[in-house]
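Kindly review this protein for my students:
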Amino acid sequence: VQLQASGGGSVQTGDSLRLSCAASGGSLRIYNVAWFRQAPEKELEFVTSIKGSGVTTYYADSVKGRFTISRDNAENAVYLQMNGLKPEDTAVYYCAARGRAVGLRASPDEYAYWGQGTLVTVSS
């Protein structure tokens, strides 16, 4: 499966953005999907993930209550709604997919498929 992330941009503190992760070459419904981000000079960081059914989600503490992950298996896509953006949310955001697994999978090494990344810049 190939993934393509989009929707990034430059916004002000408190603004919202919606990122999309579109899949091709396979059905995304069989995969768990996560969003990771990498800020300048920092390591890749887990943001959120969603199971194939869309029922179970996980969030990093830093985004809990502000970000919402969702999926539309009919559209073969996963979305990340980001509200209340802060300068520390500035990063390149990547979507990633892996086969179904129990529990939280927050390590980038556990994801086999990656999108190309989309840049989010939040200015104060």
The chain has a mean pLDDT of 95. DSSP finds no helices and eleven strands in the chain. The longest strand covers residues 91-99.
